[in-house]
Each structure stands twice: as structure tokens, then as C-alpha cells.
Amino acid sequence: MTEQVTKKTGKRSGTDARQVKSRHALRSAMLTLLERKPLDEITIRDIAAESDVGYTTFFRHYPSKADLLNDIAADEIRNLVDLSMAGANSTDMRAGSLVLCAYVQQHRALWSTLLTGGAAGVMREEFLRISREVAAEHGEWGGWVPRELGTILAVTTIVEIIAWWLSQPEDAGFSSARVADMIYHLAIAPTLPGSGPARA
Amino acid sequence: MTEQVTKKTGKRSGTDARQVKSRHALRSAMLTLLERKPLDEITIRDIAAESDVGYTTFFRHYPSKADLLNDIAADEIRNLVDLSMAGANSTDMRAGSLVLCAYVQQHRALWSTLLTGGAAGVMREEFLRISREVAAEHGEWGGWVPRELGTILAVTTIVEIIAWWLSQPEDAGFSSARVADMIYHLAIAPTLPGSGPARA
Amino acid sequence: MTEQVTKKTGKRSGTDARQVKSRHALRSAMLTLLERKPLDEITIRDIAAESDVGYTTFFRHYPSKADLLNDIAADEIRNLVDLSMAGANSTDMRAGSLVLCAYVQQHRALWSTLLTGGAAGVMREEFLRISREVAAEHGEWGGWVPRELGTILAVTTIVEIIAWWLSQPEDAGFSSARVADMIYHLAIAPTLPGSGPARA
Amino acid sequence: MTEQVTKKTGKRSGTDARQVKSRHALRSAMLTLLERKPLDEITIRDIAAESDVGYTTFFRHYPSKADLLNDIAADEIRNLVDLSMAGANSTDMRAGSLVLCAYVQQHRALWSTLLTGGAAGVMREEFLRISREVAAEHGEWGGWVPRELGTILAVTTIVEIIAWWLSQPEDAGFSSARVADMIYHLAIAPTLPGSGPARA
DNA sequence: CTCTAATCGAGACGGTACGTCGCGTCTTACG
DNA sequence: CGTAAGACGCGACGTACCGTCTCGATTAGAG
Fold first, then answer.
1. Which residue of B has its CA nearest to A124?
2. N or C: which end of chain C has fewer CB within 10 A?
3. What is the pTM of this model?
4. Which domains does chain B have, with CATH numbers?
5. For chain D, where are the alpha helices, taking DSSP H only?
6. Residues of B with CB below 8 A from A42's CB?
């Protein structure tokens, strides 16, 4: 995640207990603050205060607040993507959607903060970035839409659906299964071969 | 848009020739700068310098750079929406899509700046805001997807498609008609009745 | 003193009432603080607070606290030197000494701060610098001691005598005249021709 | 000098080989750095790096860099003063001056660093402090100048002469003897009885 | 010669001050 | 006499050192 390196071991992100603690405190603080205000109203001083970490110490871990957020985002998104990819045997998109929704449901508070709080914009971009990487690894693309556009649309649609879902009251009756269904029909199916216009 | 008031007349956005000139200069400068860097790297001093208007004068027109951008965005989006709505008799979505694409094509430089430059995020939000207003005026909603979600998806998908289109070289072979087709099949059709899952 | 320049007039140190006021406030504050602590324990924030001037504004006038002090020092020393030079017809050193002592006596509080407060070191250096300039303008040097050394000794001795004088209670009985006498016999006479060792 | 105490013995400045080594390394490093830049541009981290001693270790020996310098200064000055005092039988000031100059000449590099490098200010003050102590032990004072002032002038003059001497190229022809002469005539003689003004 | 405790290096940490940048207000001197 | 030019107070930024505090890893010197 970060480029921090311990000289002796060459491993990333030193394992010094103090470092781990500070790092975690910073991430928690960031999430707490994101529930309250958009990213650009959060100052590094806010984060330091909220996390009970020295202002200077922030920079010992992240060069900017954007990097902290990206660290969090990349971690969480990677978790999510790995899980959905693993859950589905990579061809069965419906299964993948369901796993994804179930996972989000389990961590509703976290994802609510990330997707409907002040970090929404960053999350969308990071999602897209990671998805493009994943997409690039898959050789085939059978859709009638240009691949690049297809990826963009699938991802942004999925993210929008989930963000909308998270903004609904939890008892509004939208189960993971139903949302997974929506994702399939709205985000995935439309770009599949056969869904497009009858080509001239 | 802004709250500026001319003392004598009490009217908004004075029509004094100097005011009009300054205002236009500010908007042009903002667009020029947006081609070069993202919104948050543009300072009010940049805009003042670029537009050859006194720094203080900026504040006589807009309380912040966000307001200037919103002013531009709202104007342009309103133009766009009005046109597509008028072009289509509101039921024929295909026609509307085509008008919209044609209009964007005519003002390609402007929209390229707005949607692929530093203002992209703001534009998406403003698009959504205005579309929600418009959608609220229409009583009926036949889709199998919750109306709010349907609006979000349609708008974000349209915006993404157009943004992608504008980022392609102009000679890549994507005509307005073809893009309008994509919009119809990817953004509009999927939420229409009959496209959803076979309901239990 | 400073390099500030008004674009239009080309004059130094703008005459804007606010500038003059800020500048004066900063100088006063510096002197006040120097009565209390040495230069390197005075922070720019202290000066700003003491002078009721914004922290940032300090830098609009001086690039560092050393420059502020040098500004003050150079001004005051120049005053002092000009006066002593004028008072004496440049050959009569006794008269010059007397004028100098009288002037210091008149501004005892100021010089007390400058020479016995936290700025003493800087003042000694600045005195020497200016004296060297003045000495360089005089062609002749009849002393038996190398000219450079003679200047150093005369200046440091004068400064030490005055600093010592200012540290005495005012009623200790050392009149300007008596101090001027000391200066003559201790700082000036020893380097004059005829005072040295009988040369082999 | 320092307050470091070995628990068992209660003695100051432990004799542990490692301590002695670190201490010496720190002093050398300080002198090396003083040749290059003024005291206030030398950071404790510089000293630690230069001396190949851990940063933390510095504080195990000295509470601040000023204390390290004072330690060095006091040692060296004490050496110098003891020698001059012993060399002269305390009445023959000429002999003392000569011994002093000879000693400085022998350790020219060291004294050059101390008096013309970044530590000059501190050295002057320390010289004065120690001289005052020595002067206080001598009961008599026959000069026509107040004793306190006499001490100040003698010491500062001697220091200035030596600093000037050290700044000259070594082959400029100023022998120890000649400098001792200057010291006698410029720093000592002027305050002796009979040199002052003809008293009324 | 061994073992115990002093010493050391490394470096994370909470701080304080720095000097810079941009904001938005308010004053002023000029046209 | 209005307006642009710009001085100003403010507050966040990111940096540099400070001095404190753990940690292990040596290593000196007492037994």
C-alpha cells in the first residue's frame, strides 16, 4: 500500500507496534471524519486531532490526505474485488454480483461512509482504476460496445447502484439478492453480446 | 445565479456593460484554465490574471470559484437539457438522444473541457441535480427499477458515454448517431419496463 | 533600508499609511522584546503578537527577524555615526567622542536595549561593519598598528565602554564628559602614533 | 562539566571506554563543523552524523549543543589562562602576554576555529566570564578606570587582537613576540595608573 | 572467562516554529 | 468619487529540528 520500507528487512510498512497503531488511528480518524464532511473540508490537522496522533506524524505515514484515503480505498476495493472474483468462477457474473452485495451488506457502515460520504468521488476513480487493471488481464471482450467504455459503464453503474442502496434505509426491503439482480440486469447484461442494437 | 445586486435597480446580475464584460471574461478564463488543470489547482488569482480583471472584482461577481463554475455548468447543462427535451416529444427517447449528441458535437470543445477537464466531478453532480428536477416534473414512471435509482443510472451513464466519446479522437468513427444509439441501449432501455428480471 | 519597492514610483518602502504603521509596530515590538530576552529566544510569532500585526505580515516587511534587527541597528548606528562625525570636524576626536556620548545619553533607553539587551552581538557586528565603511573612506592612517586592527579595536572598545556605561545606574556619577574622556584615552589614543612601543 | 553520573561510583563523566570515545568524537565533530558554519546552523543531528555517534547518544553526554561548546570552550580557555598566569609571576604582564601568544601559536588551528569560526561569540563571552572569576581573586586594582570596565576592555581587546592575528596569513610577519607587544600596549598598559587623563 | 548491566544505534513520536500560499476583507491612493 | 491595487489577518500547508521514549544489540569490566 505505502512505499515505507524498513531498511533491514526490506519489507513494507514497518511492523513496529507504534507504527501500526498510528497508521490504524489515522485510517479510523479519516473514516470518522468522512462521515461528517467532504474530503476537501477535512484538514490534515483534523485528522491528526481526531486520531490523537501528532500533526507531524501524519506525514511520517502519508504524504498527503489523498494518499491516506487512497490507501484505505485501495485496500477495501481490492478486498471487494478479490472476493467477488473468487466467489464467481469468473464467468458466472450473477454469482459474483451476489457475493459482492453480500460483502457490502456485511460491512455496510464502512461502505456507506466510503461511497456516500465525502470520499465518493475518490472511490469512484479508484474503483475504475482497479477495474481497468483487472479488465486488462482478461483477454476476451465479446461485447458490442468498445471495451474501454464497457468497463467504465459497468463499474460506474455498479458503484451508483450500491451507493444508492446504501443511502436507503436498511429496512427498505432491498435485499442483497435483489440488488445483485439489479446489478446484473443494469450493469452487466446491457453490454453483453446480443443486447445491443440490431447491427446494420 | 449569483446574489449580486445593483444598488439602484435592485435587479440581479446588472446589465452594466462593464459587468457583462467582466462576467464573460471570468467565464472564459475559467474554461481556459480548466483545459489545463483540475479545479482545485486553479486559484481565484489565476482566474483574475487570465481574465485581465482585478482580483477584487472577482468577488463582485461570484462569492467563490465554485460558484463561477456552477454558474457556467448550470447554464450549459440547462441549454443541453432544454434542447434534448424539446427535440424529443418527451416520449421518443431516441430522438432526444440524437439531438443531445448533435448539440454536444457542435460544441465539442466546450463540452470536452467541461466533461473531461478538471470540472468533470462538478459537472456530473450538476447534471444529476438538474435531471432530478426535470424528472420530478414528470409524473409517471413505468420502470421496474426505483425511480430515483433509474434517474441516477440514466444520467451517469449518459454522462460517462459522452465523456468517453469526447475523449476519443474526433475521427475515430463514432458519429453522433452511433453514440445516440449507445445511449439509448445502455442508458435508457435497461430501465424500461420489460427489460428487468422475470419477476417472481 | 529594505528593498521594498512601489512599482509605480520606484521609491523604497511604500508610503501607504498601513505599511508605515505596521513597520513601526514591528520595530517597536522588537525593541520591547529585546529588553526581555536574547534575539534567538524571540520568535517571529512573538514579534507579530507583540506588535498586533498578522504573522504573515511580518514577512511582507522583512524576510527574517535578523533583517528587522539589522534595519533598526543600521538606522540607529548611522544616526549616531553621522552625528559624531559632524560634531567633530573629523580631526578632533575628543569632540566627536563627546557628541557621541551626549547623543547616547539622550537616548539612553534605546541604546541600553540595543547594547545590553539581546541584540548586543548583532549591534557589535553592525557597528564594526559600518565603521569599516567609514574608515575606508579616510585615506590616511598614521597609527603604528595595522589599520584593520586599529579599527576593530577602537570600535569594540568604544562599544564596550558605552555598553558598560549603560549598565551602570544612571546616578553612578559617570557623566557624558567623563565617558568621552575614557573613550579618548582607552579607545583612540592607544593607536595613535607615538603611543606604541619604542620601535627597534 | 556535565551532570552525567555513573550509578555505582557516583563519579562524574564515567570513565567507561565507550563514553570517553563518544565524548571525544562529539567534541571533534563540533570543532570540525565550526570550521564550516556558524553555531546556529549546526544541528545536533549534524554533530551526531559527523561524529558517527547515534543521535540519541548526544543527549547522554550533553543537554544541548551550547553545553557541548561551552564544555570545549571552558576547557581550552582554562588551559590558556592557567598557562599565561603561571608563565607570568602575575605582576609581569609582558611575560604573560608572550606565553599566551606562544601557546595560541602552537595550537593555531584550534584557536583559529574557536575565535574566527562560528563560535566566536560564545568564546568571547566565556573568556570574559572566566577572566572575571580570575580577576575577582586578585585584591588590588590600581588603574584609573573602574575595575569591572578595565577587565572587560582588557579581555575583549586581547581576544580581538588574537582573533585578528589568527585571521592573518601565517606568513604575514606577525610573530608571537610582536603580537604580545601589541597586547601589552593596547590592552594592558592603557588602564594602568599613569596612563589616564591628567586628573583635575 | 563469564555474565551482568551500562552504553549504544536506531528511529517513532509529540511538539514548536518556520516560511509559503491562497483566501476574502478592507483601506487607500489614483485616475 | 468610484474603483483597482494591494496591504492585511487568517489558517492550512509541508519541513526541519527538537528532546523524549522505547526497543534490541553490543560490549566493557566486575566477579
1. B121
2. C
3. 0.86
4. 3-63 (1.10.10.60), 67-191 (1.10.357)
5. 17-34, 44-51, 55-61, 65-87, 93-106, 108-116, 120-137, 147-167, 176-182
6. none
